[in-house]
Amino acid sequence: MLNEYSSKFWTCTILFLIVHKLLHSGATMQHTWLYLLSGLSLSLVLLSRAEEGLEFPNFDGKDRVLDINERNYKKALRRYDLLCLFYHEPVPASKGLQKRFQMTELVLELTAQVLENKDIGFGMVDAQRDAKVAQKLGLEEVGSLYVFKDDRIIEFDGELSSDTLVEFLLDVLEDPVEIINNAMELRAFERMEEDIRLIGYFKGEDSCWYFQAFQEASERFQPYIKFFATFDKSVAKHLSLKMNEVNFYEPFMEEPAILPGRPLTEMDIVEFVHQHRRATLRKLRAENMFEVWEDDMDGIHIVAFAEEEDPDGYEFLEILKDVARDNTNNPYLSIVWIDPDDFPLLTTYWEKTFKVDLFRPQIGVVNVTDADSVWLDMSNDEDLPTAEDLEDWIEDVLSGRVNTEDDDEFADDPENDHYILEESDENPDTDEEDDGDD
Amino acid sequence: MLNEYSSKFWTCTILFLIVHKLLHSGATMQHTWLYLLSGLSLSLVLLSRAEEGLEFPNFDGKDRVLDINERNYKKALRRYDLLCLFYHEPVPASKGLQKRFQMTELVLELTAQVLENKDIGFGMVDAQRDAKVAQKLGLEEVGSLYVFKDDRIIEFDGELSSDTLVEFLLDVLEDPVEIINNAMELRAFERMEEDIRLIGYFKGEDSCWYFQAFQEASERFQPYIKFFATFDKSVAKHLSLKMNEVNFYEPFMEEPAILPGRPLTEMDIVEFVHQHRRATLRKLRAENMFEVWEDDMDGIHIVAFAEEEDPDGYEFLEILKDVARDNTNNPYLSIVWIDPDDFPLLTTYWEKTFKVDLFRPQIGVVNVTDADSVWLDMSNDEDLPTAEDLEDWIEDVLSGRVNTEDDDEFADDPENDHYILEESDENPDTDEEDDGDD
């Protein structure tokens, strides 16, 4: 048994070794990589296993990330199917800030290595030194990662780790519109209830103006929003789709919305998606977690924790879906669902920050400026709250009757910062009658 | 936008900084932690965000992993709900091997920090210095991680990264038997088709001999095999379960097996699970990936790649399930299903090693001693193979007609190592008639 060598961990180790050398040797980057290639061999030998087929990649020390400037950016854009550019502040003088910068570079280096055969270029654009290039490329937010595919720019706003980034880029490489050909693929489509999906019915792939408009719209949202098309009459019939019609499925909704306008232009579709993008119930994912978190509702999020693989969590999620379906037309409601299984390293941080037990389902309000929170008290109940109970509570949240500030008279004592919500005065009897007051 | 700082990456970085200091300073571990606490503050400041609530933990430098020896092991066993011991070879003299050891220790340190409030102890047992303790504790395999819960030992054989280990330990902390109380929880149970599940119907939790035997059996397999129980008549009726009866669900099978023997003792259940544990179709997971890989069939695995979220992949997986259902009684067949989405960093490694395109579903035979492989050629087909096509191919694999050695006449040229299988002589017409020969 040789599995004590965490491959992810080794990867980081080797990367760090390189950073360390960079900081202390003063050598140029190119030389440092080469220098380290020999030093790494001992470590890599240790990773050998008796059985082959499950080897995690380790950074090989080869420099793949380009230093983008006015002379090479056009060539880079032409050369690759995808170009992935990190737009960064000027490399600072302080060692600590330099480290931060190099860490990011090295996440990109490992990603570039892993995706070496996929024709993806990687580069860094300095916001000061390469200001002109940045302007020409349309880079706006310093600290963002931009992916160029054909003539489009895709911003990445997820966790900048190699595994999340690799998965994201592989998604970007796929066709932006997936074709649904038969009943089995239709079943796969219908199972994707967690995602926003659009599906259109068209005559065919070629020489079809409607399909082209749909495809061009899809490219603007890839890979965040999934676009499907069918050319098959029986698939279309099953979905009640007329020719050249497009349906929009909000996550967890059974009935789609039909996109208005005929003929549907690219801009019709794009505008509709922009307007309906913030779903009533949306799942937090590593690939865009910060984007979702920044898209708060007046400084708060309604957050629900539910582990889908756990019977309790599954049941609670089903109740949440009912609530979302009942309130899908309320523009002020958007619940962020977090499955703790997707974020093992954050689970205990959340338990500590929010003072809740994540072995059980939870729902609460989080103030995103200070992570102050209040949570619906479900601890005394044998059964979970009903959809009606939840809707009453959500109404209290949206009206401000339940908020994160009311318990802050104890704010001087940090231990009292995040009380579990005790029932408010408006509903003194709810606690006893959680199951019966509907 | 501050999400350019990959938190996982930072974590590793900080850990590495500590290792590096250990190697170069010669200080004791305790002092090194303390020394570094001050040095880390700059980096941590850089992680602050405008919005709160999604902070990945960074190692705080506090030493939580115990050095287990004859004097403290009994106390450690008594003190914690869980004790997690890494059984390791003596710390070697060479610097490279020392690093490896310290890396493992630091994966444990971060895990210990993240789970600090969960009453889990962590320790290292030296196979040479602490040989007696190891013997008393029943530690057998050097390089393994053992978890002690009550009077049981659970071996961890997955990827030793902090996130996989945290998730695993949180699962171990839960009750080994999950109770199914109502129709909604039953639906959650029925959806878990990827897992081996046992479910029993009992009178009640207390003073029920049958339930106790079931519970004790469950503890031996936690968290790898899921045990459920119900005390509810209508749930039992839906599952056709008689009182004190236990059903065993193989992954992806619709009909369960009824455990033989009445009354069912703990050993009856344990033996049945041991006999039926290797499923006809089993999903590869990070938590026990090496265990599954080591459990090969005469040196080979039949491996299927299918991305469940992709319509093509979903369709192929459904075909695989049909094949598995048709062949569930064949003890020589066990297909390892890998969803590439679960292993983003391995995807391109597999593509390179096996010379296959993982944007499409694939099935092949892998020789685990050298990762040599042959793959069913599905590239020319509009449609995926039928279940019958797959069964014919599997028959050829099991009979040895399809194997990884036949193409090795070119073995001297490494480029020719992993040819996609061309149709063998036995079935010269299959290529043209993939859809019609059933």
UniProtKB/TrEMBL annotation, chains A, B:
- Where in the cell is the protein located? Sarcoplasmic reticulum lumen
* An annotated GO BP: regulation of cardiac muscle contraction by regulation of the release of sequestered calcium ion
Q: What GO molecular function annotations does the UniProt record carry, in alphabetical order?
A: calcium ion binding
Provide the alphabetized UniProt keywords.
Answer: Calcium, Glycoprotein, Muscle protein, Sarcoplasmic reticulum, Signal
* This protein's record includes keyword S-adenosyl-L-methionine: no
- Chief site of localization: other
Record field: compositional bias (Acidic residues): 405-415, 422-438
**From which domain of life does this come?**
Eukaryota
Record Pfam families = Calsequestrin
Q: What is the annotated role of this protein in its UniProt record? A: Calsequestrin is a high-capacity, moderate affinity, calcium-binding protein and thus acts as an internal calcium store in muscle. Calcium ions are bound by clusters of acidic residues at the protein surface, especially at the interface between subunits. Can bind around 60 Ca(2+) ions. Regulates the release of lumenal Ca(2+) via the calcium release channel RYR2; this plays an important role in triggering muscle contraction. Plays a role in excitation-contraction coupling in the heart and in regulating the rate of heart beats.
Instruction: Write out the similarity annotation.
Output: Belongs to the calsequestrin family.
Q: Which PANTHER family does the entry link to? A: CALSEQUESTRIN, CALSEQUESTRIN-2
> What protein name applies here?
Calsequestrin
